[in-house]
Amino acid sequence: MTASRPVVGIPASVMTMRHFPMHIVGHSNAAAVARVAQCHPMVIPALGGDLDVADIVGHLDGLLLTGGASNIEPHHYEGPPARDGDLHDPHRDSSSLPLIRAALDAGVPVFAICRGFQEFNVALGGTLHQFLHEIPGRIDHRRDRTKPMEAQMGHCHDISLRPDGLLQSLAGSDTAGVNSLHGQGIDRPAPGTTVEATAPDTTIEALSVNAARAFAVGVQWHPEFRAEEDPFYRALFEAFGDAARARTEQRRGVAR
Fold first, then answer.
1. Which domains, ranges and CATH numbers included, belong to the chain?
2. Among 117, 148, 177, 215, which lies 20 to 30 A Cα-Cα from 192?
3. In what order do the strands lie in the sheet with 175-178?
4. At what angle do helices 231-255 and 27-35 cross, to 10 degrees?
């Protein structure tokens, strides 16, 4: 009998299409979960308080937080008011932030990417820079939309990996090349987290949770792009998938 695959929940973003709000998850995120992590992706609608977060988490073997076009509303981290024209998604905020906390409390593996990485930090008590490129000494981490998409998703800069850290062990190196598609970034890391990687301009590129009972990592870049080709990106999703399988076995043991 073939064992069933772990189930990985992916909270959706809400976007308006043809005047109707839609719950959306990027294809590359779901594909990386299915093809590389070898898990079943399950989209979680961004319904905020209408979700029974504890019940949902009880059915999950992993939680993937993805990137998105919007930014987290700054009141969640006591940041300064947003500027006019800044895109927000309060439905996603009210869904993802409690899901992150509940997943970590339950020992569910968590992998957070780009906007999800920022949610990961905010959910645990950290803060964000709203306009990273305006900070003296920082590079512009936003994508260059004048370039072909393939170039936008390619390696933009190297990151330094923490010696003897989880990401260094997965990369098999002290450095790695990553893409860069973000305007905001980590200001103060959340209490109880460790910085796993930094960009050349000191921007925090990855965090892990110190006392987590399972894989709990956030990264600022997008490893779902080229997850099947890039060895480091693949290793991240495979490690997440392995943690989800361990969670599946744990849940089966409890059910017996």
1. 7-255 (3.40.50.880)
2. 177
3. 40-44, 7-11, 62-65, 110-113, 216-219, 204-209, 193-198, 157-161, 175-178
4. 70
Active site residue 222: yes
Q: Which of 114, 129, 196, 205 is catalytic?
A: 114
β-bridge pairing 7-11 and 216-219: unpaired
User: What is the residue-wise DSSP string for 160-228?
Assistant: EEPTT-HHHHHHTSSEEEE----S-EESSPPTTEEEEEE-TT--EEEEEETT-SS-EEEESS-TTTTTT
CB atoms within 10 A of CB 173: 12
pLDDT tens per residue, range 23-69: 999 999 999 999 999 999 999 999 999 999 999 999 999 999 999 99
d(CA 11, CA 87): 18
- Strands 40-44, 216-219: pairing kind: unpaired
In the chain, what is the greatest distance between 2 CA atoms, to the nearest angstrom? 59
Tokens representing 136 are: 């003296």
How many residues comprise the chain? 256
Is residue 114 flagged as an active site residue?
yes
Name the least confident of 95-99, 125-129, 193-197, 251-255: 251-255
Active-site choice (91, 129, 182, 222): 222
As a whole number of Å, the end-to-end CA separation of the chain is: 17
Instruction: Respond yes or no: is residue 39 known to be catalytic.
Output: no
Check 73, 196, 205, 224 and give the catalytic one.
224
